UniProtKB/TrEMBL annotation:
Protein name stated in the entry: Uricase
Catalytic reactions of this protein: urate + O2 + H2O = 5-hydroxyisourate + H2O2
Major localization class: other
Residue stretches in coiled coil: none
Family (UniProt): Belongs to the uricase family.
One GO-annotated biological process of the protein: purine nucleobase catabolic process
SUPFAM superfamilies found in the cross-reference section: Tetrahydrobiopterin biosynthesis enzymes-like
Residues spanning the signal sequence: none
Swiss-Prot/TrEMBL keywords: Oxidoreductase, Peroxisome, Purine metabolism
Length: 338
């Protein structure tokens, strides 16, 4: 559930020896927390309501390991208390977006409990959108509809529709010994497909190869993408997240009328990551995974008496096995720290 920070912290001055360990062994990693805390927040501005539904995970790492070694629970902030904190801070401060809410929670745990060494907050946002006039059969957007016009489109004041096109998530890690706060934003499960302008040719040709050169194929993938910010002081998280999503779709699909050529999944992935770094200077490193979801042409040659001619219309979806392509692109001035 929890994403690992893309930039690994350096353990300066830390020894692997665990002085609390009663035996010859040392705990090399540890922590605890509450996962899958589900919360819905409703913001009411008169007749217009806005919602945010999150699934939140809170993990703490304490300085002491006496709970492990000696069964001493005196430093433990119960996971039930962590769950309550999620609801109480949402009530007190509201919810704007996953990143700001994760930062709010992480700073609270750090400031409230001096014996906490590290906090890791994970937030996933459930994709709700306002119901539009078109979806209810209302054509004029006034009178009986009583909708609010948002972005030049009549939308419902308080009704929403679940649109699971992708999942937005974030991870925030704060360490008491490290002034830099780690903020990772991400997109998971963005499935896309195009029916042409994808090829795969001139790859290794040896005795193990059975796949022919493919000069025009269906290209489909499920994009998982995460990126880390070098500085978050002036970041508009929602704007940045939408920019990354739009870049992913644009580099995959191209111009609506013309499209864009993809000689390999690797090349499309690299061009996407490069444009994100070119566009968003606050992003220091980006990682993407693009599994190749295959659609194989159904062979109609044995059935010429039934359907004569070539087949370029009917395909067999094959999700498994599939190729997986991934890469992480970082600015050169931080590459040595990855």
């Amino acid at each position: 559930m929890f994403a690992n920070p893309l930039q690994k912290p350096t353990a300066k001055g830390k020894s692997f020896q665990d002085r609390e360990a009663p035996h010859q062994y040392a705990i090399s990693d540890y922590g605890y927390g509450k996962d899958a805390v589900k919360i819905l927040h409703v913001k009411r501005d008169g007749p217009v309501h806005s919602i945010k539904e999150f699934e939140v995970g809170t993990h703490l790492k304490l300085y002491s390991k006496k709970d492990y070694f000696h069964g001493d629970n005196s430093d433990i902030v119960a996971t039930d208390s962590q769950k309550n904190t999620v609801y109480l801070l949402a009530k007190k401060h509201g919810i704007e977006n996953p990143e700001n809410f994760a930062l709010l929670l992480a700073r609270h745990f750090m400031q409230k409990y001096a014996h906490v060494e590290e906090v890791h907050i994970h937030v996933e946002e459930y994709p709700w959108q306002r119901v539009s006039a078109e979806e209810t059969g209302c054509q004029d957007g006034n009178g009986n509809c009583n909708y609010t016009n948002i972005n030049n489109r009549a939308r419902h004041n308080h009704a929403f529709i679940f649109t699971p096109t992708e999942i937005r998530y974030c991870d925030v890690v704060l360490r008491r010994t490290d002034p830099k706060q780690t903020v990772i934003s991400g997109i998971r499960g963005l499935r896309v497909l195009k029916t042409t302008q994808s090829s795969f040719v001139n790859f290794v040709n040896d005795e193990f190869r059975s796949l022919p050169d493919q000069y025009d194929r269906i290209f489909s993938t499920v994009v998982d993408c995460s990126w880390e910010y070098s500085n978050t002081d002036k970041v508009l998280f929602c704007k940045s997240w939408n920019i990354v999503k739009n870049i992913i779709i644009r580099k995959f699909a191209g111009d609506p009328n013309v499209g864009t050529s993809s000689p390999s999944v690797q090349h499309t992935l690299y061009l996407t990551e490069k444009e994100v770094l070119d566009t968003l200077p606050e992003v220091s490193v980006i990682s993407m995974t693009m599994p190749n979801k295959h659609y194989f042409n159904f062979d109609t040659k044995p059935f010429q008496a039934v359907v004569p001619g070539e087949n370029n219309e009917v395909f067999i979806p094959v999700d498994k096995p599939h190729g997986t392509i991934y890469a992480q692109l970082a600015r050169k001035d931080i590459a040595s720290h990855l």
